[in-house]
């Protein structure tokens, strides 16, 4: 474009202080300039429509990004919490409750094992004492039966002596 203006300026004739350009060359330059302006306007229009579509795309992507961020926050919140009896609890709180229950049950189990072993020892002692007492009672009963039989014999002997 710039080259065409310089060419026309060089080949044009001078009249006083003016440059004289031929009509056909002027028309050709005019067509070229208008054609270049039309191309420029068309390019600008294309660039503006492209810019507009890119702005819409950016706005759409920003909307999707904010939605994705919200989804991520919800997913992280869900991941860091556990539902216990319908209530959402933080994992740390859940772990504390779980360990408290485990420790409480372990202590209760230890207490009952201790009580059971203690009761078992006392029961074994009582059973041993019972066997000793039963053995003693059995010996005493046998001796009492023998004494009673001896006394009956003596009584029968005395009765027999007195009859005779």
UniProtKB/TrEMBL annotation:
Keywords: Coiled coil, Membrane, Transmembrane, Transmembrane helix. Residues 44-78, 130-161 form a coiled coil. The chain crosses the membrane at residues 96-114. This is tRNA (Guanine-N1)-methyltransferase. It comes from Polaribacter ponticola.
């Amino acid at each position: 474009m710039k080259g065409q203006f310089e060419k026309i300026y060089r080949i044009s004739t001078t009249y006083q202080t003016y440059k004289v350009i031929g009509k056909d060359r002027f028309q050709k330059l005019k067509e070229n300039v208008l054609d270049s302006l039309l191309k420029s306007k068309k390019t600008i229009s294309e660039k503006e429509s492209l810019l507009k579509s890119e702005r819409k795309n950016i706005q759409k992507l920003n909307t999707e990004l904010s939605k994705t961020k919200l989804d991520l926050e919800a997913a992280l919140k869900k991941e860091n919490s556990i539902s216990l009896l319908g209530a959402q609890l933080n994992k740390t709180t859940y772990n504390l409750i779980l360990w408290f229950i485990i420790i409480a049950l372990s202590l209760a189990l230890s207490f009952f094992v201790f009580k059971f072993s203690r009761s078992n020892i006392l029961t074994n002692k009582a059973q041993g004492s019972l066997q000793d007492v039963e053995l003693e009672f059995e010996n005493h009963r046998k001796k009492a039966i023998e004494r009673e039989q001896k006394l009956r014999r003596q009584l029968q002997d005395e009765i027999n002596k007195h009859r005779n």
